[in-house]
């Protein structure tokens, strides 16, 4: 399966480059599979009058397309991937039944004769939601937590726009419910939802994490009416549910701070790195890095990334085995820049890394800028960590 590549002016261990003059007939089959899946679901939508057949056939087809082709979870073999998706499929089908029978699917789709509108609005929006790793990837919000919103550029503005759009949609849906005489019933339901969310927010030691599959379940009851906007909204929400489960599974609504951290910044102190002692010999270039005393005793070690791969770590109180500097060697003919990041350790925990300092091809050192790096450490296996050289 193809993946997106990012240009980089240096190297990694076991890295490789593609020869420019070599032709290869291999191509990304995901788009061919997408065409087949879209044709299948569109034909099913256009030529079936059964609301149940329409809903469940499309749900199953799109679920397996997302899980196997467009946004599969991490896997080491095809058999492992199929096993993973099968484990999610059965509980997802139970949720699909609840969505169809109890959360507005049947009421919206039953007796609907506008086949083209159903296909374009409901099915089209469902594909948009299911392919959210492509269609909504431009939105700079990865996780809806206060910590992440502070760190992600543009996240607050994007959230404000989303809230405004949702407010307009909610007002319109409230008007439709009022016209049908069902407003009070649904106000009670959403009051119950809000009460549950408030209780979750008050629980000590746990953080509320509204995954997009949970967001879909919360909003789906508000689409239980036969209007064109409801077709669009319900299709999008079902697609979001499919993508969330097929890719990530049923992650919990309440999570600890550690499980939510991921690759976000910790806000921890950063090592103070002195200017390296650089020796540009004829046969070997060396750069010797030293650091200031850590600001607190709990920081008992230091980790160094070279080109975003951990190549050195040491603990300050290891006696004779303790390293007080980091020596990096390279050959003069290596015509690549090298990038260095440093972080304190606390036991086996690695805290925030500095921004990258650069040792360029001319042997000149460029200091790292202030502030933590947003790059997560890509660590080698312990046996591959080399303390002194490549």
UniProtKB/TrEMBL annotation:
TM segment ranges: 33-66, 78-100, 120-136, 156-177, 189-211, 231-250
Key words of the record: Membrane, Transmembrane, Transmembrane helix
Signal peptide per UniProt: none
Keyword Ubl conjugation: no
UniProt protein name: LCCL domain-containing protein
């Amino acid at each position: 399966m193809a993946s997106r590549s990012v240009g980089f002016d240096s190297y990694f261990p076991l890295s490789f480059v593609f020869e420019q003059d070599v032709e290869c007939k291999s191509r990304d089959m995901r788009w061919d599979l997408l065409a087949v899946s879209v044709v299948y679901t569109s034909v099913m939508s256009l030529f079936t009058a059964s609301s149940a057949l329409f809903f469940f056939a499309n749900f199953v087809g799109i679920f397996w397309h997302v899980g196997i082709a467009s946004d599969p979870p991490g896997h080491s073999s095809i058999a492992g991937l199929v096993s993973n998706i099968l484990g999610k499929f059965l509980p997802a089908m139970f949720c699909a039944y609840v969505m169809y029978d109890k959360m507005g699917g049947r009421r919206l789709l039953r007796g609907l004769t506008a086949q083209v509108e159903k296909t374009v609005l409901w099915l089209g929006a469902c594909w948009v939601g299911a392919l959210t790793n492509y269609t909504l990837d431009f939105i700079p919000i990865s996780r809806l937590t206060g910590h992440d919103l502070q760190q992600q550029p543009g996240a607050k503005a994007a959230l404000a726009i989303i809230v405004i759009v949702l407010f307009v949609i909610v007002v319109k849906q409230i008007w439709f419910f009022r016209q049908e005489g069902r407003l009070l019933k649904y106000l009670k339901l959403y009051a119950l939802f809000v009460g549950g969310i408030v209780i979750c927010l008050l629980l000590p030691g746990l953080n509320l994490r509204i995954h997009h599959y949970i967001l879909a379940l919360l909003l789906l009851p508000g689409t239980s009416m036969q209007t064109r906007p409801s077709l669009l909204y319900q299709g999008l929400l079902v697609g979001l549910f499919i993508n969330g489960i097929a890719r990530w599974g049923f992650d919990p609504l309440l999570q600890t701070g550690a499980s939510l951290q991921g690759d976000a910044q910790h806000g921890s102190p950063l090592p103070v790195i002195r200017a390296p002692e650089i020796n540009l010999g004829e046969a070997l270039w060396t750069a010797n890095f030293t650091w200031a005393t850590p600001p607190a005793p709990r920081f008992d070690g230091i980790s160094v990334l070279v080109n975003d791969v951990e190549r050195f770590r040491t603990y300050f109180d290891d006696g004779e085995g303790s390293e007080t500097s980091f020596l990096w060697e390279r050959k003069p003919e290596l015509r690549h820049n090298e990038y260095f990041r440093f972080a304190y350790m606390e036991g086996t925990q690695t805290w925030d890394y500095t921004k990258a300092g650069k040792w360029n091809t001319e042997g000149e050192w460029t200091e790292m800028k202030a502030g933590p790096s947003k790059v997560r450490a890509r660590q080698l296996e312990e046996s591959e960590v080399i303390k002194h050289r490549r």
